[in-house]
Design a protein that fits this description.
Layout: H1 2-22, E1 31-32, H2 35-52, E2 64-65, E3 72-75, H3 76-94, H4 100-103, H5 105-135, H6 140-152, H7 159-172, H8 177-183
Antiparallel strand pairs: 1-3, 2-3
Helix pairs in contact: 1-2, 1-3, 5-6, 6-7
Length: 185
Amino acid sequence: MVEELKTKIRALYMSLQGMLEQAPQESSTYTIYDPNYWEDVNRIIDEIATLTELNYDSWKITTQPSHNLGKPTVTTNAYKTKLAGLINYLKGQFFNDESLTALNNGVTVNNTQTQSIQLSIVLEIQGAIDKKLYSEKLENDEKSFLEKLRSSLSNVKSSMELINLVLTTALDMGFDVSKIIKLFS
């Protein structure tokens, strides 16, 4: 009976994960107007409550009337926060003895791909710096800039940190954008 319940909950849990992965990005959609988003989540919450005979109403997506249309809406952030919270709650309640990777395979793959891309970018920059340092005649300040940049690359953990590193190093050394472009062309 317990395994049968877990199997049914797992199917609903995976549906919720899919909904979270497909949720609009805040950068493109601040407000969700389509009622299917919150109605589907709330329907699954009702199914889980029926199966478990527990109350999950606090996880339901609540709406607010739109300021200009008067229709129900929910902010993307509120939707994603409630959904992620419910997913984590269900994980703890039903699947805490299982590997997170097994349950979050899509998210894990996405994170791994992002990390690979970021590493690839850092390695590409490092290769370009090495090529410039060892194959071209550079001004002393250019050589200093590239060496300082190369020595700091091991601390970079994201693309944004890389951009920040290049720009702050250039600023510290008095470089303008045209000089950076020349160095990396």
